[in-house]
Design a protein that fits this description.
Elements: H1 15-30, H2 32-42, E1 52-56, H3 62-68, E2 76-81, H4 84-96, E3 103-107, E4 120-126, H5 135-145, E5 146-164, H6 169-183, H7 189-196, E6 202-216, H8 220-235, H9 240-256, E7 259-272
Parallel strand pairs: 1-2, 1-4, 2-3, 4-5
Antiparallel strand pairs: 5-7, 6-7
Helix pairs in contact: 1-8, 6-8, 8-9
Bound molecules: S-adenosylmethionine.
The site of S-adenosylmethionine (SAM) has 21 residues, from α3.
């Protein structure tokens, strides 16, 4: 299957598709499980002594709004995204919350960051690296623009671990792989990074994993399936009818309280030599 990662090719999407992705990013940020994973690494960062923070692939600005709301952050943060609609939305949300003085969002390509070397204390990529065209080039740019001794954080899912329960295990597994492969350009990148990051001069100071699991009710994985099943359909991997049966079964399980889905997410905190 050829991945047609919507976040990679975001500037080819129409306004309706963009609006759905904006809604998905914002609903994911409000999801208690996902919000906890963000909070977990943000609260471990030295925000009080980090005047300049960069968030690459910032989307609607969820990460920087969360940082800017914190009392221990007194610096300036910049978010970069390739999608002008997301950047405009992110600036609007920040202004609406009265955070505009501390965060700013700009259009840019993560593969070629428009900042001088060593200009940030902390550089973050929150669910970016699984989507980009060339992950090592992006990480190389993040390593370039962070100051020596500064921190680079990479957070993302290992989407080869994405699993929805389905009684026909073979088809269920194929559907899991199709969801991962149709949606993410680099579904397995997080398992490669412990080997690759040190080669970029980024030394591990912390790394941990979290299983995002929903049992009985579905919220995070409901929105995930609603957003990405259309991309599996468009890939032509399976007859539409089989995909509809899979999707209806998931929705019924959520209504019956018998739902099960899970995926592993990893956080890597590194320091530039
Ligand atoms: C899954 S979203 C994550 C957004 C945000 N970090 C969050 O967690 O809410 C991935 C984002 O990466 C952006 N992106 C993908 N490739 C990019 C690139 N080459 N340069 C800049 N942004 C990119 C997309 O436009 C999208 O906003």
């Amino acid at each position: 299957m050829v991945a047609r990662d919507p976040h990679r090719f975001i500037n080819e999407l129409d306004d309706d598709a963009l609006a759905r992705l904006v809604a998905r990013l914002e609903s994911r940020a409000r999801d208690a499980v996902f919000a906890r994973l963000l909070e977990k690494y943000i609260s471990a960062l030295p925000l009080a002594t980090a005047p300049r923070i960069l968030d690459v692939g910032t989307g609607t600005g969820v990460v920087l709004r969360t940082i800017a709301r914190r009392e221990d952050f007194a610096g300036q943060a910049v978010g970069v995204d390739q999608c002008p609609t997301f950047v405009e939305t992110a600036n609007g949300f920040a202004r609406d919350e009265g955070l505009g003085g501390r965060v700013e969002f700009r259009v840019g390509d993560a593969h070629k960051l428009d900042f001088p070397a060593a200009s940030f204390d902390i550089v973050i990529a929150h669910t970016l690296i699984s989507h980009v065209t060339a992950p090592l080039a992006v990480l190389g740019e993040m390593a370039r623009v962070v100051k020596p001794g500064g921190i680079v954080v990479v957070f993302d899912g290992d989407y080869a671990s994405l699993t929805y329960a389905f009684a026909d295990h073979d088809f269920g597994h194929q559907m899991d792989m199709a969801l991962a492969n149709a949606t993410f350009n680099n579904p397995r990148i997080m398992r490669d990074l412990p080997r690759l990051l040190p080669e970029l001069g980024l030394k591990f100071v912390g790394g941990w994993g979290d299983a995002v699991a929903e049992i009985g009710q579905g919220s995070y994985f409901k929105s995930f399936a609603e957003t990405y099943v259309p991309y599996v359909k468009r890939s032509g991997a399976f007859p539409e009818q089989s995909i509809d049966i899979w999707f209806d079964t998931q929705l019924r399980a959520m209504m019956n309280g018998t739902f099960f889905a899970t995926c592993n997410y990893y956080t890597y905190v590194t320091r530039r030599a």
